[in-house]
Write a structure and sequence with these properties.
About 35% of the residues lie in helices and about 15% in strands. With about 375 residues, it is an alpha/beta fold. It has one domain (about 1-370): Rossmann fold, CATH 3.40.50. The strands form 5 sheets. Strands 3-2-1-4-5-9-14 form a 7-stranded parallel sheet, sandwiched between helices. A 3-stranded antiparallel sheet has the order 7-6-8, with no helix packed on it. Strands 10-13 form a two-stranded parallel ribbon. Strand 6 (about 135) and strand 7 form a beta hairpin. The longest helix has 21 residues, at about 90-110.
């Protein structure tokens, strides 16, 4: 196939290229942002690959991708500014890159009447806002509203209910749960989804939207202090620096290894894959404190966890995936356990340079704009 991959030299893109390059013709568009790639980005060279440096949202995609020279069967749209906290004070850049960048792709397809077979979007679990919960009193599904800053300021991390005996238990979040973004980043990802869905009818293509949980693993950026909690924690551990644990560390997330994410995209390329929206995760709830403890234990470093009651606006308390739809309709299941994935990450990271931690800089930025405490 002829495949266009936007953001193809990022974390997920490089892994995906490795899986597809020998049997497909791939064109990569990537802006090579220094925050993610550093000042000396690694460029993949292969006889089946064409690379074009371009920032989606800049204006005229046809100037770098002349339609008479390119013909794509599939578009895999990975290009995106990522970072929940950063998105809350860089609103315009996030909307420009994520929303207008996606719109530019469709302008290109419609203007030149280009026909593709399938559009695959890398979306995010953040579109749900909070995940699904079960009430201990009514035994019904609850999708709570965002926590309030006035409660977070008092270190009240869990949800306050009208019934003091009620407890909200996190349960697997299904794709049918209403979307309720609570960060600018999440809103841009939902906007991407809606554009892909709407334009599927106009452009007559199949579409797969993958709502990725917390992706980690070898190849992850060790530079970016705004995203990738595993790499952030490990960078701190390697430099004997303290690890700031936000809230009480009991926030629930779903960590999925890069190889499982890669296989979900490969499954999405299959002609039997049914158009729709799919959660991609491990399906397992793990707390932030638990993952930090496992990472330090498996790597042999003594952790220095700091609990100061800090929090970030736009963060959720809990979300983990119901992955049954992806299993049924994409024939996909995760294969890598969390501990196995952590060992892979550690082994790879130990071959990489130790980068000066920029975490304190990012925390100061978030605090300056009132995004974190």
């Amino acid at each position: 196939m002829n495949i266009l991959i936007t953001g193809g030299f990022g974390f997920i893109g490089k892994s995906l290229i490795d899986a597809l390059i020998d049997n497909n013709h791939i064109t990569v568009i990537d802006s090579l942002l220094p925050q993610v790639h550093g000042n000396s980005p690694q460029i993949i060279e292969h006889r089946n690959l064409i690379f074009i440096k371009y920032h989606l949202g800049s204006g005229d995609l046809s100037s770098v991708l002349p339609p008479e020279k390119f013909n794509f069967d599939v578009i895999i749209h990975l290009a995106s500014e990522t970072g929940t906290g950063q998105s809350m004070y860089l609103i315009s850049p996030y909307v420009l890159s994520n929303v207008m960048g996606t719109a530019e792709l469709f302008d290109y397809l419609v203007k030149y009447n280009l026909k593709i077979q399938k559009f695959i979007l890398s979306s995010s679990r953040s579109v749900y806002g909070e995940g699904a919960y079960l009430s201990s009193v009514s035994n019904t599904l609850i999708h709570p509203n965002p926590r309030l800053k006035k409660d977070l300021d008092k270190n009240i991390w869990d949800f306050i209910t009208f019934n003091e005996d009620e407890y909200l238990q996190p349960i697997p979040t299904h794709e049918s749960l209403d979307c309720s973004p609570i960060s600018v980043y999440a809103e841009t990802k939902l906007s991407q989804e809606n554009l892909v869905r709407i334009m599927a009818n106009v452009c007559n293509y199949d579409f797969i939207i993958l709502r990725l949980q917390n992706v980690y693993g070898e190849g992850q950026s060790l530079l970016n202090p705004y995203t990738g909690i595993m790499s952030i924690f490990y960078n701190q551990l390697r430099q004997d620096l303290p690890i700031q644990i936000y809230e009480d560390g009991l926030q629930i997330r779903d960590f999925v290894h890069i190889s499982d994410v890669k296989s979900s995209f490969v499954c999405s390329l299959d002609s039997s894959a049914i158009s729709g929206i799919y959660n991609i995760g491990s399906g397992l709830p793990i707390s932030i404190l638990d993952i930090a403890t496992r990472l330090s234990s498996l790597s042999g470093y003594d952790p220095n966890f700091i609990f100061e009651g800090k929090f970030r606006l736009g963060d959720i308390r809990a979300c983990y995936a119901d992955i049954s739809s992806a299993s049924d309709s994409l024939n996909w299941k995760p294969q890598v356990s969390v501990d196995e994935g952590l060992l892979h990450l550690i082994e790879w990271a130990n071959t990489q340079p130790i980068y000066k931690s920029m975490l304190s800089n990012s925390e100061q930025e978030l605090s300056r704009y009132g995004i974190s405490k």
